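Why do we care about 3D structure at all? Because function follows from shape, and shape follows, mostly, from sequence. That is the central idea of this module. The next example makes it concrete: a single protein chain, its amino acid sequence, and then its structure expressed as tokens.
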Amino acid sequence: MDEVPMPEGFNPIKEIDHIVFVPPNEFAGNHKHKRQEVLLGLHPDLVFIWQDEKGEIHKEQMNPNGKLLLFFIPSFIPHGVINKSDISPAILYEWTDSESEEKEEVNLLDH
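And the structure:
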């Protein structure tokens, strides 16, 4: 994916890209891990949710007004993606800087 500009300092593993399917009204993620990720959401109803270092929860539309945005997730930041659509599944494209590893589940939706 050389044509997609990555955040400065993020070096994705070229062989490991993931396509994630998110059903309607479902939450993907709700975890944290050591590796870094970059997400591209391909649906108008996707919301990225994360918890900052102070414990505050943030939510941001992944496609505001039809614009595609890249979301960079640093190491150990709790995060997930919500598909707010009642009828339509969504797709996420994910780049990582290392192979899969253990994840720690978190409860972002409880906040």
